[in-house]
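re: the backbone from monday

yeah here it is again, tokenized this time
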């Protein structure tokens, strides 16, 4: 029957795992008549919070007898002087025992479940005699590393005699200090004797930086004979009791060290002590840090000798004894004040596993998942960079409330996704300077602080996109990103970066990408399209991939928005079309090439002859076709073209092939191009045609080029070619042309141009 009952009890607590042991103090000391408080930690699972807690005493047979438990049981020995309190929120329960006696010394266990069968932890309790009850001996308890002042009374008869303090060793004593100035070498710079005055009849000895070796019996003495005044002193050096610290695997812990204002300007340290080993410095204010704590430890100095040490991403090997202290060399040394902790690392943890090292290629990106307590979903979240040169300082780079450090703008974003205990940090445009350690922090549960080491390696980013582009204000804009085959099944996206994250934008799949050499049709181009660019569109854009809620690689592109100025292409089009094209003698070409300068309708131009050179070029700043009046242009050009055609027919025999040195003749605001050389020195023509043609004649290009721009290129000498004609025919034709031109000019001046 008892076995069946035991089996039923065991079935009640099946989920209490042996992988999550109870943790408590290994040794507890006190003095009879006083009280003691013992705190025990347990894994904070749902069942453990409601499971029976107990405190039992171990017997010689190994059996553990329950003295008090959380279900209300209290033994007769503890009736009225003990209680057990459970704190399920913090995963602890506390056993308080008062009115201690020497009989309470022994070995105990605190645990969960059934005594001797559930989770438990061994605790040693030592109750010593009250030193205040030792007769004529005055007891001075003092903490290690602190200061003690010993008062030594004397009678008036010995007020003028030598005063001293001696320490008992074996069968004798040795002098520690006296009023003549002697100080033992073991107490040099630590012990001082002072006489308060003859009226008080007391002298005092102050001993600083108490060491463990200072503990023992002392004798205060005034005088050096049989009538000397003597008093016995018991100096008890108390080692600091370790404070228990309970941390889950991958969580964080903080050691708050209070050493007092007397060591405010002394170097501080934190060391770790393994069983049977020396205390090895983990970190100190002189710049030393243990290699296995690199990147995951912070030293935070405060006022009056107070400082904190924060250790993140706890490992199993971090468990053990830790000592903080102050010492000029930043090393543990006897006689200096210290504070002690006992750290236990629980391997059964709710904190999810995350990579301790992430790698990214130069110019590429990395994505870091940061865990946080799901209860802190609404709390601010941060990402900071651990700086070794600043005693492990960690300045913030980005936070969920919208802060991004200036040099990380466009490169760094903190995203709330995927949520429910994890947020994402993305850093792109990686450089060698980004290598280092980074911390994920919230202003909620500090135990969830985690660290990651970033390594930047050589390589090529997988995503391909331009780094800097320019979009024109008011015009459409398209930005493309190339994704390799390995991201075929991933979600692709474009987003616009801001200091509050990266807002997703609509994208367009443009089909296969040819940007990858060894890739098939699964490589893609995904584009971002802006129909009409505005100034607000300027900034950083990211393209990237996602696998569900998990973010992957990204690449950043900076888009500058500018006003489009008349480009070089437009300028070339304006310059290529002359403001006033030469009027060709052939009527068929006249209408396409004659584009008059509008200024010709405002002011007259002087007539130039062949010796005076060509007329002044038209203003190139005015585009062709924009003259003052289209009607005036048409009514003037058409009659002038007919007159010119008649003149060409008349002198066609003289001008057969070359029309060089074309000069413009302006007749009262009307301009045309004729060959004056045909009429030069008509007396020399005699019976030959074109004998007066100038060998320097220029010809306007039939291709429509500006005659002024191409004149120098087309210069060439032409031999005069004789053509049979008569001098009389040439004179008659020239006279007829001049008369017609004069009549036409007079009519235009008096009546104005008419509609053609």
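seq for it, each position gets an aa:
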């Amino acid at each position: 029957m008892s076995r069946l009952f035991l089996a039923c009890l065991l079935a009640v607590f099946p989920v209490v795992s042996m992988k999550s042991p109870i943790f408590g103090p290994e040794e507890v000391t006190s003095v009879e008549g006083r009280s003691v408080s013992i705190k025990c930690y347990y894994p904070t699972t749902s069942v453990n919070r409601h499971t029976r807690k107990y405190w039992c005493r171990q017997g010689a047979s190994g059996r553990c007898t329950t003295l008090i438990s959380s279900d209300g049981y209290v033994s007769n020995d503890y009736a009225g002087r003990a209680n057990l309190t459970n704190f399920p929120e913090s995963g602890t329960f506390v056993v308080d025992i008062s009115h201690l006696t020497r009989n309470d010394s022994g070995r105990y266990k605190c645990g969960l479940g059934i005594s001797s069968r559930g989770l438990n932890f061994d605790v040693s309790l030592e109750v010593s005699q009250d030193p205040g009850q030792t007769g004529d001996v005055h007891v001075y308890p003092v903490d290690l590393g602190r200061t003690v002042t010993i008062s030594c009374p004397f009678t008036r008869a010995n007020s003028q005699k030598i005063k001293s303090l001696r320490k008992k060793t074996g069968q004798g004593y040795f002098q520690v200090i006296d009023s003549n100035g002697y100080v033992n070498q073991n107490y040099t710079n630590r012990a001082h004797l002072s006489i308060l005055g003859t009226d008080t009849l007391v002298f005092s000895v102050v001993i600083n930086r108490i060491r463990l070796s200072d503990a023992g019996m002392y004798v205060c003495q005034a005088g050096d004979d049989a009538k000397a005044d003597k008093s016995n002193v018991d100096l008890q050096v108390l080692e600091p009791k370790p404070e228990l610290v309970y941390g889950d695997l991958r969580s964080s812990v903080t050691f708050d060290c209070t050493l007092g204002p007397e060591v405010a300007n002394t170097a501080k340290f934190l060391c770790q002590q393994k069983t049977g080993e020396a205390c090895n410095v983990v970190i100190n204010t002189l710049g030393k840090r243990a290699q296995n704590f690199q990147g995951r430890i912070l030293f935070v100095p405060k006022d009056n000798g107070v400082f904190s040490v924060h250790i993140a991403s706890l490992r199993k090997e971090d468990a053990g004894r830790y000592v903080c202290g102050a010492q000029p060399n930043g090393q543990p040394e006897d006689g200096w004040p210290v504070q002690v902790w006992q750290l236990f690392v629980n391997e059964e943890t709710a904190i999810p596993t995350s990579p301790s090292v992430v790698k990214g290629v130069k110019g590429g990106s990395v994505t870091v998942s940061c865990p946080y307590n799901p209860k802190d979903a609404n709390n601010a979240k941060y990402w900071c960079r651990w700086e070794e040169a600043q005693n492990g300082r960690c300045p913030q780079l980005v936070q969920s409330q919208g802060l991004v450090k200036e040099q990380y703008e466009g490169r760094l974003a903190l995203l709330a996704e995927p949520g429910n205990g994890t947020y994402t940090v993305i850093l792109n445009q990686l450089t060698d300077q980004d290598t280092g350690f980074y911390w994920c922090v919230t202003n909620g549960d500090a135990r969830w602080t985690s660290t990651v080491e970033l390594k930047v390696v050589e390589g090529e980013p997988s995503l391909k996109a331009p780094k800097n582009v320019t979009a024109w204000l008011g015009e459409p804009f398209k930005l493309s990103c190339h994704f390799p085959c390995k991201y075929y099944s991933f979600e692709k996206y474009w987003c616009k970066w801001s200091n509050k994250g990266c807002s997703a934008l609509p994208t367009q799949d443009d089909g296969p990408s040819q940007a990858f050499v060894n890739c098939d049709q699964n490589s893609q181009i995904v584009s971002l399209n802006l129909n009409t660019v505005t100034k607000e569109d300027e900034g950083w854009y990211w393209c990237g991939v996602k696998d569900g809620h998990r973010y992957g690689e990204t690449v950043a592109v900076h888009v500058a928005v500018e006003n489009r100025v008349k480009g070089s292409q437009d300028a070339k089009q304006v310059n290529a079309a002359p403001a006033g094209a030469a009027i060709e003698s052939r009527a068929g070409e006249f209408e396409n090439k004659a584009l008059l300068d509008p200024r010709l309708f405002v002011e007259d131009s002087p007539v130039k002859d062949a010796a005076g050179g060509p007329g002044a070029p038209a203003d190139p700043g005015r585009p062709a076709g924009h003259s003052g009046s289209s009607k005036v242009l048409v009514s003037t050009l058409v009659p002038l073209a007919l007159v010119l055609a008649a003149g060409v027919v008349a002198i066609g025999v003289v001008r057969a092939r070359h029309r060089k040195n074309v000069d413009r003749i302006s007749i009262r605001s009307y301009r045309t191009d004729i060959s004056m050389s045909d009429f030069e020195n008509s007396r020399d023509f005699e019976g030959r045609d074109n004998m007066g043609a100038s060998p320097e004649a220029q010809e306007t290009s039939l291709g429509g080029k500006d005659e002024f721009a191409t004149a120098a290129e087309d210069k060439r000498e032409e031999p005069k070619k004789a053509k049979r004609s008569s001098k009389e025919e040439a004179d008659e034709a020239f006279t007829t042309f001049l008369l017609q031109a004069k009549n036409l000019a007079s009519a235009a001046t008096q009546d104005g141009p008419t509609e053609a």
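The domain at 131-238 is CATH 2.60.40.10 (Immunoglobulin-like). The helical segments are 2-12, 46-50, 568-576, 587-593, 630-650, 707-710, 727-751.
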